[in-house]
Queue: 4 jobs
Job 1
Amino acid sequence: MTSTTPETRSSILGTGIEDALLLKPIRYQWSYDLYNQAVANTWFPHEIQLGEDLGDFERMTDEERHAVTFLMSYFNPNELLVNKALAFGVYPYVGAAEAHLYLAKQMWEEANHCMAFEYVLETFPIDRAEAYAAHVDIPSMAAKEEFEVRYIQRMAEQTLDISTTEGKRDFVRNLVAYNVVLEGIWFYSGFMVALSFRQRNLLRNFGSLIDWIVRDESLHLKFGMNLILTVLEENPDLQTQEFAEEIQQMIFDAVEMEEQYNRDLLPRGILGLNADYINTYVRYLADRRLEELGFGAHWGVSNPAKWMATANDTLELVNFFESINTSYEVDAQAGS
């Protein structure tokens, strides 16, 4: 029986059961740091007094309530879909203990986010059956889900051979689909809409719940980006023009799908927000993701939602560990 020691493993990719059983020495400090930050950021949905927002929800217009319901319809199943992507498409193919630690915490966080959105559905007078059915019944929402399922399907139904170039490409495709597109563009677009209510002094506690979710997602995005870049750096066979163009096209397709989804989210617009505004923000987000992957910006638009910088500025969130979130930390709370 042979085993590869931490000192001799040359790649973050690996499938050996006997590998990654020793945490030290740490090879990927960024992953270990993210794990510790994620633990410090642990929170629970019912710490937020969401019932205090009920009066706001009841006074909102039909279009505003539709937007909140639409977001819950999308977020709830997709948090669980991310967990499947991690369990089938990432965790089994990573051979570093510090990465396994972070991925285990991320999977717990995705479950916690699902419970947070369930808390919203339980608190606000939303038709749960209608909300649950929307991700299948609304074509623009279903198209986004089909896009994600397409990339995870091979991981769920087969075992990748990551010793081959094509197997490694499938691994990276899955990371781009979930970490970059779903978590880094589509989720952030929805977060901006959710937080826009607080800009008008509505749903303030709901906004605090979204803040906590965004801070988790910022770490997910950092981990995913660093994992993608590490795999590309350690595997020169992936660094081809053809593969680069394929990854870019995934993001272009994702933006097109999100733009249609946002037209269904806000068919007539609400005060201070319409689909065109959101879609400009989507293009801004996509440009940032392209730049973080080493490409140039494609749309060249400025951020229309600069108010997001007060808590959730995208560039700061993915500034690769130069700034650390301290808005809520378990250890800090214990000492207060």
Job 2
Amino acid sequence: MQNGVKNNGDFILGVKASIPLVIGYLPIALAFGILSKTTGISILDSFLFSALVFAGASQFMALNLILIGAGFGEIILTTLLVNFRHFLMSASLAVKIEGKIKRWIPFIAFGVTDESFSVLSFREGKITKEFTLGLQFAAYFAWVSGTVIGYVAGGILPKIITDGMGIALYAMFTAILVPELKKSSKVLFLALLSGGVNTLLNYLNLLPKGWNMIATIILVSFIGSCIYEEEEVKLCEQQ
């Protein structure tokens, strides 16, 4: 009985810890729902986007790819590359969560986002699966419900406002990128390189629509891994 009380308490603690995430997710989810409406997809498609993908940046990117006429394969591959970091985040959390979690692994892995990972990774000591699931459930509910509300609002709000929501994608990426640019000149270099490579590929028009972004991600990621690998080798030599 005590375990049950403790587990329920941990779940509630997880929900409470998610409040900052919920506050941050709702306006972005609303923006995604509104953009989904203006893109022309159905409310069911918009709901399934958030319910099954649950990856903000990738969902905005997918909408953009849909608008330019990219194929399903290009959208899926681009989303996979953008979200590849989740493998590393999940591996890190796997050693931090205590107790038997085998049957819960699919749910916990699905709920991993940059924000939830940040909360969980900075929490001192081990964390329980109940706390993790409480945190992720509340964030997930906010994201999905915000998307549906945004879609419905997209049919009510004036067109000038819904058209202006397109800036939400760029605002979101800027908010993610700027803090990292302040920390590292290498991140600034890679960001500028990404923009330059993608612009060049669009200008040359050698690849089908949507593949320019995929090629940019692969090329710049390779260059970035080489830069950081050289830095690690130098640090090892100094030690």
Job 3
Amino acid sequence: MEFRLTEEQSALRESVREFATEVVAPVIGDHYERGEFPYGIVKRMGEMGLFGLPFGEDVGGMGGDYFALCLALEELARVDSSVAITLEAGVSLGAMPIHRFGTDAQKKRYLPRLCRGEAIAAFGLTEPGGGSDAGATKTRAVLDGDTWVINGTKCFITNSGTDITDFVTVTAVTGTREGGKPEISAILVPAGTPGFTVGPEYSKVGWCASDTRELSFVDCRVPAENLVGERGRGYAQFLRILDEGRIAIAALAVGLAQGCVDESVKYAKQRVAFGHHIGDYQAIQFKIADMELRAHTARLAYYDAAARMLAGEPFKKQAAMAKLYASESAVTNAREATQIHGGYGFMNEFPVARMWRDSKILEIGEGTSEVQRLLIARDLGL
């Protein structure tokens, strides 16, 4: 396996890094403090083609691949995770289910606008009583003639209530299998459909400039043709989407971990204590060296998982390992970066304060650390 980037990949990385530094960094702090979705930044990301990176030109995409998306996510998260998760969720959870499992009509109708960033989409899986236990879905969808009637609640859904949200794909129980197990399907619900209510924005610890809401469905009716993929295959589809998404979240986590290194190196060269820059002290040097080690190793892990995925090889275990190690490395690096900054690390005007608040969700979202360990153990035959 080759871990060096091609010229095209390097150019993409540098382009996104420049965008993150020059466009995102100067304004994202204000968005974050106000809990405000950064529409202007998202519009610019759409114009750059970032939302279309892994999709074909036939649907308005850039003709790249999933690794290209990961490179973009890493560079964005070096500066801010709210912007990065908006892209990650919009592509891997919003558009990808349509790309992987949608009908030709669904792809033609929805993907071009999603690829251009003119609209974003969400995926409604988690429920108030079921996070890791996603198979315990309570939302129900009953086929009434040529219409699905949906009732239920979803929570913690990213990109679900913005002014440019086009639709949410929700999982729902559509019947019962032999043996009494629920039949779970995925159904596309357009924004504004009667009976579909989007709750207020959550007050969150981190990712404060991203959109996250609770959704409720009360006798919400959508056409039968809004079924995404095969009936009864919604849960299996979701597992495939999450396997891929874990690589993307790993890339985002690596970006945050690397951002903590960047900020700590810069601060260590500026801050003077006891007559010396703090970077002259071995205690600080060793902290930053360990932070760089974690970021580098986590990057290799997600590169490997992405390479296996794109080669058509099994990658479930590698994706779980990458997500687990990268997310826990991000949390550790954010804690260490805050410590290096001292009191300033507790001030929101410093990026490491945002990174510290943003890091914890990476050990929870799109599969907890405990779930990743379970997947790894299962692959080992345990």
Job 4
Amino acid sequence: MTGQSTPGTIGQPGTSGLDGLDGARVIYVAAERSAGGVGAYSEVFADMLRRRLTDFHEVRHPRPGTDTVTDLRARRREIIELIDAADGRPVVVHGEFSGGSVESFWPTAGLERIRRGVLVSATVHDPPGLVWWPGRVAFLERRRFLNHAVHFPLRPLSRAIERRVVGARTLFAMSHAGARSLLRAYPDTTVRHAHMPVWSRGEVVAAPDRPKAVGLFGLVYRGKGFEHVERLRGVLPDDIAIRIAGRGTEALPGLDGVEILGGVDDADLPAYFSSVRALVVPYGTRSLYGEAFPGSSVVSDAIAHLTPVVCTGHGALGELRTEGGVLVVEEGGRTHEETVDALASAAAELVTSRDRLSAMGEALKEMREVREPDEVVRTYLDTWARALCRA
């Protein structure tokens, strides 16, 4: 759908450029760079905005679960002071909402109701929930059993709180599946689809010319599939190596035929992706709280470095099958272990076919082009400009 969106619709804005933001102040509320994947994303997104806006302010917070109620109130006061210092000019407050993080959620709650001329929006990283655990302050983070004891049985209440706070705001999702899930959960909102931006850190070797290896990449935590490395190794032919990189991977047990690199800096990503012909993404169920449709920064890094992906259809990954650079292995009636076997078999077949690797490499170039930062940030700027004009 193109053109203007109204509450209860998903669409892309028409072109309005930056003119509608002239004189406006943009306040960006997001995690610090060191605060996991969302923090790393927010650092790049802030840089995209910083280079395009003349009145841009950042309000940063630490990793999820570290704020006390006092911290949340202090951050809210900081945001309100920035709003009031705009001297009546239009203000956009944009937050990054992710699972388990109340650090942007509560400080931005109700701002549009207490200050005129304020537009509040958010990118939702784990839709359909905005934060999933709206009560997770530092007290509950230190008592994880109590946190689940409070939130799991009260899931309908959590969603009602999220719906009340978000009201009729504009929400951004990084996948079409995520956007649809937001619209179902918050029918009064306006929902936009904006790709997760991809940016290459340097040149990479063409996929068919790389070493005969597959990779696993990313931060180690539940659902990311690192627990299946031994099973992958058992199914893959011996002449196909596995190279693993990412924060926390250094703690994984060693296996013959598996190279564990640990965390890698951004500058080292081209070298890492040039060392594998395909990336295997064996994501599975991550939470008992319900299905989620997060964007994958791991897949975005693979796209940026023109690396074919072999993945499950978990969450929003399934919709990538139509774009050519991603091979989705359907779970169907399989157990997750059987799906991992199928992933390994599909990866083995792929990395031995120069023609398929070349074709997927060309598709990845097109996928990277539509996810260029300039293209992505334009969706946000145009949406804000049009909303301010309507207001």
